[in-house]
Amino acid sequence: FSGWVVFLAGVFLIGVVGFLLRKKKESCIP
What is the pTM of this model? Predict the structure, then answer.
């Protein structure tokens, strides 16, 4: 059970980080 929680948390974190990085890149482009 805890394995699934860690897996889902990892996927969620990766998605959030990817979204933030994409947002940062777009804001850097003039």
Answer: 0.59
Distances (CA, A) of 20 to 12, 25, 27, 30: 12, 9, 11, 18
CA distance from start to end of the chain: 46
The 3-state secondary structure of 1-30 reads CHHHHHHHHHHHHHHHHHHHHHHHHHHHCC
How far is 4 from 8, CA to CA, in rounded Å? 6
* Separation of alpha carbons 11 and 13, rounded Å: 6
Q: If the chain, 30 residues long, is cut into consecutive pieces of 10 residues, what is the mean pLDDT of each piece?
A: 91 95 76
